[in-house]
Specification:
about 220 residues, homodimer
């Protein structure tokens, strides 16, 4: 894949609504993906019915790696040669938007929707990269400060890869814009900021080591800026 | 549907992994649903490919209402008489679980996965209930303090209903349990609490009204306990 500034638009990455909120810019999409570590993985079951499961992911260049067990349903299916059709969605909420009319209420958010065929990672070198990335996506610096998986554990771990290709982001970062006809209504309007925060780390009773530097003042998105 | 204490178990609401984390208890499932207002809606497109989109929802008894536009893809499809096969997933993250081995790293979370046929709400009385619930799910008390949708706005709004029937929750609320063989390793282990918080409401410049009581000290899940 050439390193262009944008991913290609396709019919299914072109929203039917609020098209002005959509972007295919690589940097914007990567920024949203790098700000989170939880995604919702969509696939279809044997009867063609939709299934959506939460799981952790990591981005490495133009690849998303998703964590699973070798026994889990999507992972078993992704092991097939043709790959598993998936939709991976990441959503970050930034604010509740309260307007004077119920209709104009909204949410400020950043979301990424990626479509494609997921495949199970089988190459040991790629698997090692993916597993480190999955740990570091949530806690940057952690992969180098824990025991890597041993052979038995690796056999129980499966990772699927989705190449970012058919992907878009949708971003709303606006104010509480009331309709002109509503401006005189006696209701409060404005934004309620929403954010995810991390509390003080709680050591396991068996831990003798001091809190590592990467956990001091640790907050979402912090280490990546 | 009889008001039993549990939803029925079916093959697709019985996880293949960590079955001890699963529950079909109505009260537990409702508690998870009531603690959030964002879900990920999964359906399949015309080619049978999975699509996962974030949207807001509300729970009213054994019904989930999901918000959309009449022009959006899932809503158009749900207007068909047979309903739209969907999977609605709600995920709340409570902690990062850091163990001395990479393999045992985990996440404390509460999730609900609901399957079924979604239908568009067309009865005006039910639609009014659903729209109020959608506003109040995120901001309890707000529906009574804004202008309800007018006829033109109602025509642009669509709500789909999913009856809670084939639904389960999965909950992990454990510590950072290291393998006995790992306990002497020199790595930190423990929990990093994760929570969503609301910042101070930011009034729109045009707002003259004081901050309403339901927005004072407003935090996720607060009003519901």
């Amino acid at each position: 894949m050439s390193e262009t500034a944008s991913y290609a638009r396709t019919p299914r990455t072109t929203p039917t609504r609020y098209r002005d909120r959509a972007t295919w810019e690589r940097a914007e999409i990567h920024a949203v993906l790098d700000s989170a570590w939880l995604c919702h993985l969509g696939f279809t079951d044997e009867q063609g019915r939709p299934v959506v499961l939460p799981t952790i992911y990591a981005r490495v260049g133009d690849r998303l790696y998703l964590h699973g067990s070798t026994g889990s349903r999507p992972l078993r299916t992704a092991g097939r040669s043709a790959g598993l059709p998936v939709c991976v969605t990441v959503t970050q909420v930034d604010a509740l938007v309260l307007t004077k009319s119920a209709f104009n209420h909204s949410v400020n958010f950043r979301s990424v929707v990626a479509h494609g065929l997921a495949e199970q990672v089988t190459d040991p070198a790629e698997l090692a990269v993916a597993l480190d990335a999955l740990v570091d996506q949530a806690v940057p610096g952690r992969a180098a400060d824990c025991r890597p998986a041993n052979t038995k554990e690796l056999a129980q771990t499966a990772v699927i890869r989705l190449v970012l290709d058919e992907v878009s982001a949708k971003i709303r970062q606006d104010g509480a814009d009331d309709d002109p006809a509503d401006e005189q209504l006696p209701h409060w309007s404005g934004l309620v900021p929403v954010r995810t925060v991390y509390g003080a780390p709680q050591p396991h009773p068996g831990t003798t080591r001091e809190l590592p530097g990467y956990l001091a003042d640790f907050q979402p998105g912090g280490p990546r800026g």
